[in-house]
Amino acid sequence: MAGDLLLLAVAAIWGSSYLAAKTLVVAGGVLVVLALRYLVSMAAMLPLMIGRRPARGEVWVGLLLGCTQASVLALETYGVSLTSATNAGVLISLTILLTPLLQGGLPPRFFLAAAVATGGVVLLVAGPGLRTPSAGDALMLAAAVVRAVHVTLSGRLSRPSYDTVTLTTLQTVVGAVVFTVAAGPALLPAARGFGAGEWLGVLYVALGCSVFAFVVQLWAVRRTSAARASLLLGTEPVWAVLIGVSLGGEHLTVLAAAGIALVLAGTFWGQRVERAHRGGAYQPASTGAQARTASRTAATRAAASRSLSLRKPSSRSRARAVSASEPSSQEVAAATTAESGPGLSSGQANGRTPTLRSM
């Protein structure tokens, strides 16, 4: 439950960042904004690495996730600038369907719930209408695919022993290096030209949309599933509309309200399906190991018991053996007669006094 609430908080922060990101891109350009965003994020995360010694595998996973995360942000930012908000919102929402396809093993009801949520996004952003496909649409579609891959890899490659803070820090380092090099000489002049409002926007997208969002996303994916995380993060357009209505003075249309209802219904339904599926099919590794160990122990004990039962005679067998080894009464009498000599009768041999007959 806590993970779901945190993922919804991430979706709300991402949905509220559209206006700030758009203002910053106009002021400094895409690469400059991304470079500053990652540089501030890296500066916030590096002090947390004091005393941590990441393993080699942990470093490789963090670098890989950093590359996929940076690719998602670059594709999204350029895609939005080259297409309409409607097309961008519909295409990026395909992550809700693509992630469970990559994860696999989910029941068909989950895909139906994801389709309901995706249909809600279509209604939510369908105010201006869809435009003719463009290069920006191709970039947004690529962003949806890479985001689904990123979320799936976060769940599959992050071992329980890996540290979430370390992996997130490595992601920010990768993004800072890549976008600082890409921005080149334009970075410092643009940063000097930023006023207080632009820097507040940079801090918001860096600390909220990057540091907090990346940590929570990775932490939640490792404890639930990639499909569930994508479903909850897919509510991002809902938060964008709600924040625009409450703070930006926008009006909520009937189609937008219906879209919000479908997104929320599909998300809630998908959560229940995923939770029931994971609860029935998932068994912790430690529990499985304990069960296998107990099964082997029981089998060993059963085999030992059978072996003992074969070697150890039963009580009935022992009784028969004892009775067979003891001489019978007739055998005892015969032996006694033989020892006493021929003058003794059987009665004398048996210990009885012979009876004298009258003459």
The tally of structural domains comes to: 1
Given helix and strand content, the structural type is mainly alpha
Helix content: over 70%
The proportion of residues in beta strands is under 5%
**Biggest β-sheet strands, sense, barrel:** none
The first-to-last residue Cα distance is 117 Å
In round numbers, the mean pLDDT is 76
- Strand tally is 0
Shape: globular
**Given the structure, what is the number of helices?**
18
H/E order of the elements?
Answer: HHHHHHHHHHHHHHHHHH
Low-confidence stretches: 281-291, 335-359
Spatial extent as radius of gyration = 40 Å
Structure description:
With 359 residues, this protein is mostly helical. The protein has one domain. It is 79% helix and 0% strand. The chain contains 18 helices and no strands. It has helices at residues 2-16, 18-28, 30-45, 56-82, 85-92, 95-103, 108-124, 135-157, 164-183, 187-193, 196-223, 226-233, 236-247, 254-281, 285-311, 315-325, 329-340, 346-349. The longest helix has 28 residues, at 196-223. 38% of the residues are buried. The model is unreliable at 281-291 and 335-359 (pLDDT under 50).
